Amino acid sequence: MEIRPFTASDADAVAEVHRRAFDGRLEESRIVQRLHDADAAVVSLVAVVDTQIVGHILFSPTTVADQGANVELVGLAPVGVRPENQNEGIGSSLIQHGVEKCREAGADAVVVLGDPEYYSRFGFERASEYGLGNEYGADEGFMVKPLHEGAIDSVNGVVTYHPEFQQAET
Fold it and tell me: Can you tell me the distance from the alpha carbon of 139 to that of 46, in angstroms, rounded to the nearest whole number?
């Protein structure tokens, strides 16, 4: 398996990955397209097996309401793997590579709204323990992974995702 940066020529294959990974829903592929169109993908990676794109992950900027500190938080969403390639470690590899690329890009922390049991394997912790909430009102499933010591010690507030997330269903 190869993990490499997303290119514009990957768009159709990535849309298909997300459509299949999310039981035919189109929202995730629309979010990916809108984020790329808005040049708002901090990190976007594809997983390739035998020349076929089988997985994709995207990280985009987030904001923290009423936050005076200059902190770079990015949101992990979406991550998708074709159903026939799930449980092969592809999603895990995408997350690990993506988090490292976010660190290299200067991000202070990554947030995700997802399954706590799954994401805790990668060092994500409940964001509310750090004083972070989110625009969706989720608690247990909203998690954060600081990317360096003290990265978010002075941060608290409500995390808001890029506007393209709200536009996904239009």
Answer: 29
Round to whole Å and give the CA distance between 68 and 112: 22
pLDDT 10s digits, 103-156:
999 999 999 999 999 999 999 999 999 999 999 999 999 999 999 998 898 888
- CA 146 distance to own-chain centroid: 14
| Domain positions in the chain | 2-165
User: Is 130 within 8 Å of 71 (Cβ atoms)?
Assistant: no
**Residue of 20, 10, 27 whose CA lies nearest to 82:** 20
Query: From the centroid of its chain, how far is CA 150?
Result: 21
**Tokens 């991000």 map to which residue?**
107
Per-residue pLDDT at 169: 47
Provide the sign of the torsion angle of the four alpha carbons 148, 88, 57, 167, taken in this order. negative
* Residues 83 and 39 sit within 8 Å (Cβ to Cβ): no
CATH among 3.30.70.20, 3.20.20.20, 3.40.220.10, 3.40.630.30 for 2-165: 3.40.630.30
pLDDT by residue (tens digit) across 45-102?
999 999 999 999 999 999 987 665 678 999 999 999 999 999 999 999 999 999 999 9
